[in-house]
């Protein structure tokens, strides 16, 4: 997709547009940023713009070259990643790449390679790649994607231009989800849960999330300090491994955030499908207790992140929640 369609990285795109216009792009870039934030899309947009003969500072999007890039079948773009059963990108893969880049491009002005994740080069493959970086055959464009540029050898880093990508804002994710045809309510919900990553948003299935909300609400309604088994059952059934528990806490936090909105008279909330339940809870709690609830959830989230025992942390949280809701 052309730069014009990239959402959420306006500053990065602006810099690329300027450098394309002035003919001053680098031959090697490191795109550093969290998974699912749009590094690969932006890399493809850069290649598309550099390959398009109609382009001034962005791809036209409609010429044969642009359509091939968009369809992922342009013969002059190489994708380099570890082979399916391997951890690292092998030295043999890098030699193949080097040989290939040395050949004349089929139709583009130059060849291009996207390497992901670039930090999966072991020392010998990294050293072999250094040669390619020093003298890219045929003026090839090399784009290295990584979540953390510090994982790359200093000698590689120093030969590339570093471009940093921030996590996507929830507004950007919501915009993209809606553009993909998702309804407003689901897009609002998923964009809040996605932690700045479209990949994460895609993994969170809307329907499964709604079901999970129902189960969660059911447990919250039964929590009682008089029947301690309700608390243990809730931790047992709602918790999971650390990652699943953090997800659960994020959902709870989104409930609490909505409740804070509702109790301060703002009707704009994320979890619209359970609005009556949230309104019911708000009518029983004052703002102070709602804020306390949010603080308890946040504190639990922090301790789970710090490696606390997940089950104990949830028991503790649900005891506090039961007390607050009583
Ligand atoms: Zn074009």
Q: How would you portray this structure in words?
A:
It is a single chain. The protein has a five-stranded parallel β-sheet, with helices on both faces. The chain has two domains: 3-166, P-loop containing nucleotide triphosphate hydrolases (Rossmann fold); 205-325, Zinc Finger, Delta Prime, domain 3. It has helices at 10-21, 39-51, 64-70, 91-102, 123-134, 154-157, 170-179, 184-193, 198-203, 206-222, 228-238, 242-263, 275-284, 287-305, 310-325, and strands at residues 28-32, 77-80, 112-115, 141-146, 161-164. Helix 7 (170-179) crosses helix 8 (184-193). The model has no long low-confidence stretch (mean pLDDT 91). It is 56% helix and 7% strand. Helix 4 links the parallel strand 2 and strand 3 (112-115). The protein is α/β, with parallel strands linked by helices. It is elongated, with a radius of gyration of 25 Å. The longest helix has 22 residues, at 242-263. Bound molecules: zinc ion. The site of zinc ion has 7 residues, from helix 3. Its EC number is 2.7.7.7. Residues 209-319 form the DNA polymerase III delta subunit C-terminal domain. It holds the Pfam family DNA_pol3_delta2. InterPro entries: DNA_pol_HolB (IPR004622), DNA_pol_III_delta_C (IPR015199), DNA_Rep/Repair_Clamp_Loader (IPR050238), P-loop_NTPase (IPR027417). It is an enzyme of class 2 (transferase).
